[in-house]
Amino acid sequence: MLVDSSPEATAAPAPVIPRRRHLLRSAGLLASFAVLAVIAVLGIAVGAKQIPLDQVWHGVFHYSGTDTDVIIRDVRFPRTLLGLIIGAALGLAGTVMQALTRNPLADPGVLGINAGASAAVVSAISFFGVTSLTGYVWFAFAGAALVSVAVYVLGGTRSATPVRLALAGTALTAVLVGYINAVNLMDTAALDKMRFWTVGSLASATLPTVGQIAPFLAVGSVLALLLARPLNALALGDDQARALGARLTRTRVLAMLAVTLLCGGATAACGPIVYVGLMVPHVVRAITGPDMRWILPYSAVLSPVLLLGADVLGRVVARPGELQVGIVTAVVGGPVFIYLVRRRRMAQL
Amino acid sequence: MAGRARRVTVVRTRGGLSVRLDVPAVVAGLVLLAVALAAAVALIGSGDYPMSPAEVIATLTGGGDAGQEFIVQDLRLPRVLVGLLVGAAFGIAGAVFQTVSRNPLGSPDVLGFAQGSSVGALVAIVYFQAGTFAVAAGAVAGGVITGVAIFLLAWKRGIHGYRFVLVGIGASAMLYAMVLYLLTKANIVDATRATTWMTGSLAGRDWDQLWPLAAVCVVLVPVLLFHGRPLRMLEMGDDAASALGVRGERVRVVVLLAAVVLVAAATAAAGPISFVALTAPQLARRLSLPRFLKGAGRGTPLPGPHLLLSALMGAVLLVAADWAAQRLFGADQLPVGVLTGVLGGGYLLWLLATERKAGRI
User: Closest partner residue to A105 among B156, B169, B340, by Cβ?
Assistant: First the structure.
């Protein structure tokens, strides 16, 4: 592993050590990028129909409308692209959220964003007769956005302590889940559709969907990366952060905005894929230590590795069918996560 | 936590026995108990054959006619008692989890126990089309196996609160994925049944479900209450607590095991009713106390985990939710789990909105 967690290194670092760690971290980030590139190629090459690599190349760069070209261009390429941007979005959102609420349990579920999106989608299905995934997207996004604003207002805009935010999110989730369950139990047809959306899948990706979602995710990602320093200050506690000149309210509002854009967009596109954003930041902190300037880029690169890897795996194990990516991420990510928790002292928030 | 001056009365007898009486907490407890009993009477009185509270009490004390006798004793009383016990079990277990994990979100449904029970129950429903008893057995098996697994995985020279939470959410992730997978594999009839079970319901509960749960509660609730004060000391950190003679590790293991078994028993009786375990301890801590109780400022949250208050609050929440569900939607149209979230969450939101002062969390 990349982390130098021996007690000597943390106790009295010689001036050489920080530089070495800096180099190590940069190298690690480059290596992660390389892994991501490999996984992305796999995502295009592997699937129910086995396509040789030269034909994959042909399909991406010399499109001529053969069957394999169509599979590559219209199915696997958008799917991989969606996986890339959704993965990065979930990782960044989870990281920002855990830093903002200083709670290791924070994920899109905790601030009620998933519940908001799900409640909007179930309403769309049950009351407005929406059936297409492209139709869900805007409902999900509106629901997510509405709920995050509500959480921030209820959490007390001025006195929004981390715990208050988390409690407001959980309380709102409680109310919304009650509503979702009620609709599902009264309307069996809605349940029949919802159970496949809730799992979280990349299968329905199309280039138009990617195009619709990308702007939101791009703005959210940039915002999240720019928040690295203020979030570092937040980690010291409110008083210390103020003393360092951090503007708490502004940081919190911007962080909530970033999280809403990222989670709302991701959830809208492929259902609530929960645990990527929850787990990746913990794994990353074990590698990089507590500095947000490293955690954020690492999360943005490693989350799509997990998501795309899980997606490819789901296509391989269940050929010619597939396992939804949300299931694979949890079943594969869970043991890895628990192993890491046991192996080292996780960096506390 | 609130460190304000509180009135604690110490009662001493000549025999050398002394009891600390935390007056505000005792008053709050009595109020909650009264509310729980009132809600229970109201719940027994509601349904297709409505009865006034007076009739209910008369029937309970043996003064009703044969019809009322049957309706109360055979149909509604066991259901209400199951509701009270399930609510109390979830409330007290939630308080234990939140204290040990040092996280207001550390509840059985966040740490994977509810999901473990759900996997067990769904396997019974989806693969075996099992009856009520087998589903309950599946839930207990799933919950207990999950609990033991999380314990073993989190154990490393003791149970460290933070590690326990992280292992719990890791396990929760995997188990929830299995739940969703089972739901997509089921036919729609089984999926609906599974969803109903996972929402949690008191409909049709009778004496058969009550006795095992009652037995578990009678044994384990006192065990937990006995550990209330050591738990509160552990909130100061292990070092301070051990200076006062509290063995942190032992206390944690005992209370967590007891809480896991309680949650499993309650889940088997009524399904994994969500948010009772999460919100009841929070609400219990925030009970606003009347002004005439000097020593407790109005609205001062009670310090530390109040296990008994959490249990009472859980019972109140669940029974009140069941009553409200019957009033709003007619008898057994919607399972109680739909409303526990709405009520508990709504009340917590209202508290958050009205608690203007910062730092009152």
Answer: B169
